[in-house]
Amino acid sequence: MAQKAVNHYVIASEKLNEKFSNIDVVDGRRRAQSFLLEQAFPTQRDEDWQYTKLTNFVQKHFEVLGKTVINPEDIDVFLPPFAVTRLVFVDGWFDEELSDDFSDMPKGMSLESTRDVFEVPGATDRLYAREGLINSEAFGVLNNMLMADGFYLQIPRNMTVETPIFVLYVQTQENHISTLRNHVVLEENSEITLIEKYVSLAGQDNFEACTNVVTEIDIAQSARMRQVITQQQHESAYYFNNQFVFQADKSDYNTFYAGLGCQLSRHQNHLFMNGEHIESNQNSACLARGKQVVDSRTDTQHNQEWGASKQLHKYVLSDSAVGVFNGMIRVDQQAQKTDGQMDNKNLLLSNVAKMNTKPQLEIYADDVKCSHGSATGQINNDQVFYLQARGIPRIQAIEMITQAFLMEPAETINNALIKKWVMEALFSALTSGGYFNEAKAIVEKVSE
Question: Domain locations in the chain?
């Protein structure tokens, strides 16, 4: 079964090669093909995939389909209520009609589709400079095999981009795999806010499609990047995202991820703090119900002195949902004065939901301040009673406690408008998703 899946994607990769004239891209895909043929897809015997089963994904052979045409009003509901510069990808392909006009961008700022980069001889170095690192991840290999579009964004030295860049990824076709390769470059003392949103346009109950993304982010000395990613795809879909982030001296990186959809989602940050006096914040809020599996991971490497990293990851799981968190903070021998903090908290709203968590520290320096922790449990009845004693019904009390628990990681978003928009999405998903059905059933049984 696994070999059939590998062969299927190798054939799909060769079909893509027939559409591209750039030999560098063709050769890159074929190197990835060889790698996948040798390694295959991971199984539960692989420690990093022990709790994230790929059985259903391997059985479902997704196709690389062409772009469909959608109307502007189809995406209105997904757009933020504040000014942004908008890029839209439909089924993994850049849609110029739905995106903003980039001709009046500030001088020196570059924004183009990855497909355009494919057509420029020599420019593909941007895609393959870290090929080996990307191939260390199974879905990085698949991305190298099937990448067809994405975006390249470069912010010049000393430029602050006031208007956030908003990237909307829309999946419209069942049995389709969208494979995107993005690259963001912030030059010295530049600043940007990047918002990414993943959604599905689907009316049916069953909508199996896949999104596989690799994003490289280079943050130069004293540059600052704010990033918000919201994944709200159909609950039958699949989502894989690998981010490789490289920070230089005195840079600042703040990222927030909200995982709200898909039957299987896996979001990973690979962060390399390669300079001194670096700051980073990685936070996430994840919701899962039914038989969803939500997986969020971070690998943070402190490689120089005076680095400070903070992380807060929270999950709310209902029904038979499964949550997976794996966080690593590695402190190199020369990374003295490191301050690395990582915390994972998980709330189970049913008796059968499961959370698998593995926070880790590897410290090779002797003058550091690092900590990690995790806690998983159910709602404290004393808290519920406290609110009930003040006239709040039990179900409403449970909803209030859960909402307050889930919203905390989003407090790290420093733009008030973006924070409000993200919190509204979290609140809407929580209150309309049936997460409190078991609690309501208990209350109704007691009242009878």
Answer: 2-274
pTM of the model: 0.94
CB 208 within 8 A of CB 181: no
Residue with tokens 């870290």, as numbered in its chain: 130
Residue from 250, 253, 242 nearest 283 by CA = 253
SS3 313: strand
pLDDT in tens, 213-249: 999 999 999 999 999 999 999 999 999 999 999 999 9
End-to-end distance of the chain based on CA atoms, in angstroms?
50
Inter-helix orientation angle 394-407/437-447, to 10°: 160
CA-to-CA distance for 150 and 399, rounded, in angstroms?
39
| Per-residue pLDDT at 33 | 94
Weakly modelled stretches of the chain, pLDDT under 50: 443, 445-448
In whole angstroms, how far apart are CA 401 and each of 11, 383, 437, 442?
50, 8, 15, 17
CA–CA gap between residue 387 and residue 401 (Å, rounded): 9
Determine which helix (DSSP H) or strand (DSSP E) holds 155, and give its type and residue range: strand 151-155
CA dihedral 330, 333, 336, 338 (to 10 degrees): 0
Residue with tokens 């027939």: 18
